[in-house]
Amino acid sequence: ATPSASRDLELGATGDDVAALQAFLIAHGYAIPAGTTGYFGPQTRAALAAYQKAHGIAPSVGYYGPITRASIAGQ
To answer: Alpha-carbon torsion 29, 10, 4, 71, what sign?
Structure first.
């Protein structure tokens, strides 16, 4: 399943859309040691940045915006 967040997500965000993003990242091999918490913390940012780097999204800073959302929707 792919996350369906319609809002941009960044450090400090919380909610079901954050949990869905975390579940997607974990399922695709990007480690979030805390697991699916629904809190966008440093571990989620690092995992998202690694996804972005692997998929040629620049800058790879761990911000979930339109470019990353489109990339994940295409998975």
So the answer is: negative
